[in-house]
């Protein structure tokens, strides 16, 4: 009994030790967690301080948002410690701006926004990107401001929507500027009063952190100042900095072109016009194929851009009115209504206050050109419908033919290069070479009358 008890004691000890291992591993994991998190932060003490730089130029659109995300992803994959965004933008869509601001705010490494080169601007949506950055820098010859939401025609947003849009944008820019410790009052004025200032004024008002002429200048000043990130200040030696340029790929180039509101609008109207020509002239193929492709690309762009559904419906309705003009006698009223529908649809195609704009002159010229082409197609189609047939049996009436063979009051004649059976309508016997005119066509036989004859006589058929 004692022997068995002594044998069982080591077994119980082993079981206790084995049961304790999960607790030991769990405690070890908690101890190593801060170390792993510190390793996940951007490296600053290595041999080189890797910096990735991306240029965002032009209107802020989903394509630019996609480019920023790609650059940030590449920077993380390469182990970069800083992402520098060279910015030059007149503004853009509100949703794309919000997406880019959220990308910067939630970035796993610091993001510096540099309004550069000389003559660059950060207006409208660009103001929010500067406010959201960990390091805000401007070229001495650059400007920032004018962030008030506008409509397509440049006028202030309609009164019914002004308060809602303004309060939303103000609260957004206020929260972003406060989170970075920047001049909240000025950022509010940039939205409320469309205030715009120079780079020197921006530095004095603490709208941005400092001025720098290029990326090397930016890194020299940033290295000594430090980068506020994740509750700590990252400092580095500028001599250790290594800059890699992030080149946008083919996909970004296509998206940037396609998601331009001007291009999207032209693709949409061009696609509708192409399908209209195919419907009015079946068999042409090329207008239908090209129009279908343009329409699909335009609709894709509209699904991404802030599009007003009513504007799309009015554009489609305008084309339908031109189609009805072909079949309904309206003395041009349907065409006039179609032009009005196209113009109004183009004007309200993009939602007010969302940043997507089409120049008013572009709308006028495009609607006028498309309406002229559609009107020409309607006129040609209607003319073809009302003309007498020029082919088949009905098209033979009035045509001239030459007698080839004749016997009694029947024979064969050559009309339009084809041999036809014919009967005499004037009950005369014709001779080969006589010229006759078709006065009636029935089945596959033509009824003809003599128009010019040869020297041989023509007597009545007995």
TrEMBL record:
<feature type="domain" description="NfeD-like C-terminal">
    <location>
        <begin position="394"/>
        <end position="448"/>
    </location>
</feature>
<dbReference type="InterPro" id="IPR056738">
    <property type="entry name" value="NfeD1b_N"/>
</dbReference>
<feature type="domain" description="NfeD1b N-terminal">
    <location>
        <begin position="54"/>
        <end position="193"/>
    </location>
</feature>
<dbReference type="Pfam" id="PF25145">
    <property type="entry name" value="NfeD1b_N"/>
</dbReference>
<dbReference type="GO" id="GO:0016020">
    <property type="term" value="C:membrane"/>
</dbReference>
<keyword id="KW-0472">Membrane</keyword>
<dbReference type="InterPro" id="IPR029045">
    <property type="entry name" value="ClpP/crotonase-like_dom_sf"/>
</dbReference>
<keyword id="KW-1133">Transmembrane helix</keyword>
<protein>
    <submittedName>
        <fullName>Uncharacterized protein</fullName>
    </submittedName>
</protein>
<dbReference type="InterPro" id="IPR002810">
    <property type="entry name" value="NfeD-like_C"/>
</dbReference>
<dbReference type="InterPro" id="IPR052165">
    <property type="entry name" value="Membrane_assoc_protease"/>
</dbReference>
<feature type="transmembrane region" description="Helical">
    <location>
        <begin position="362"/>
        <end position="382"/>
    </location>
</feature>
<feature type="transmembrane region" description="Helical">
    <location>
        <begin position="254"/>
        <end position="277"/>
    </location>
</feature>
<dbReference type="Pfam" id="PF24961">
    <property type="entry name" value="NfeD_membrane"/>
</dbReference>
<feature type="transmembrane region" description="Helical">
    <location>
        <begin position="308"/>
        <end position="324"/>
    </location>
</feature>
<dbReference type="Pfam" id="PF01957">
    <property type="entry name" value="NfeD"/>
</dbReference>
<keyword id="KW-0812">Transmembrane</keyword>
<dbReference type="InterPro" id="IPR056739">
    <property type="entry name" value="NfeD_membrane"/>
</dbReference>
<dbReference type="InterPro" id="IPR012340">
    <property type="entry name" value="NA-bd_OB-fold"/>
</dbReference>
<feature type="transmembrane region" description="Helical">
    <location>
        <begin position="331"/>
        <end position="350"/>
    </location>
</feature>
<feature type="domain" description="NfeD integral membrane">
    <location>
        <begin position="263"/>
        <end position="378"/>
    </location>
</feature>
């Amino acid at each position: 009994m004692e022997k068995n008890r002594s044998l069982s004691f080591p077994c119980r000890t082993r079981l206790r030790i084995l049961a304790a291992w999960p607790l030991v591993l769990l405690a070890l994991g908690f101890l190593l967690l801060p170390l792993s998190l510190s390793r996940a932060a951007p490296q600053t003490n290595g041999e080189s301080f890797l910096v990735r730089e991306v240029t965002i130029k032009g209107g802020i659109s989903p394509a630019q948002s996609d480019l920023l995300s790609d650059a940030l992803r590449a920077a993380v994959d390469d182990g970069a410690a800083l992402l520098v965004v060279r910015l030059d933008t007149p503004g853009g869509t509100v949703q794309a701006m919000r997406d880019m601001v959220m990308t910067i705010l939630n970035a796993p490494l610091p993001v510096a926004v540099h309004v550069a080169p000389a003559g660059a601007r950060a207006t409208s949506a660009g103001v929010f990107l500067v406010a959201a950055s960990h390091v805000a820098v401007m070229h001495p010859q650059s400007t920032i401001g004018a962030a008030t939401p506008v409509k397509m025609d440049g006028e202030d947003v309609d009164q019914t929507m002004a308060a809602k849009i303004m309060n939303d944008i103000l609260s957004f820019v206020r929260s972003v500027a406060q989170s970075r410790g920047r001049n909240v009052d000025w950022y509010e004025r940039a939205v409320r009063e469309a205030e715009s200032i120079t780079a020197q004024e921006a530095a004095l008002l603490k709208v941005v952190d400092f001025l720098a002429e290029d990326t090397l200048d930016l890194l020299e000043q940033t290295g000594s100042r430090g980068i506020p990130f994740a509750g700590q200040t990252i400092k580095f030696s500028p001599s250790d900095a290594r800059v890699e340029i992030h080149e946008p790929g083919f996909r970004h180039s296509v998206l940037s072109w396609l998601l331009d509101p001007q291009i999207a609008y032209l693709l949409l109207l061009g696609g509708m016009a192409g399908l209209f020509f195919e419907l009015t002239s079946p068999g042409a193929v090329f207008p239908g194929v090209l129009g279908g492709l343009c329409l699909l690309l335009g609709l894709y762009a509209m699904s991404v851009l802030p599009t007003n559904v009513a504007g799309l419906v009015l554009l489609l309705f305008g084309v339908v009115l031109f189609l009805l003009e072909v079949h309904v006698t309206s003395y041009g009223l349907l065409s006039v209504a179609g032009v009005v529908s196209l113009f109004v649809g183009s004007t309200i195609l993009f939602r007010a206050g969302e940043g997507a704009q089409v120049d008013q002159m572009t709308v006028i010229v495009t609607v006028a050109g498309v309406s002229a082409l559609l009107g020409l197609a309607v006129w040609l189609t209607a003319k073809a419908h009302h003309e007498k047939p020029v082919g088949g049996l009905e098209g033979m009436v009035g045509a001239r033919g030459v007698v080839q063979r004749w016997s009694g009051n029947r024979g064969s004649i050559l009309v339009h290069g084809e041999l036809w059976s014919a009967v005499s309508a004037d009950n005369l016997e014709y001779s080969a070479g006589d010229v006759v005119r078709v006065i009636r066509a029935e089945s596959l036989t033509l009824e003809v009358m003599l128009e010019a004859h040869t020297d041989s006589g023509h007597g009545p058929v007995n």
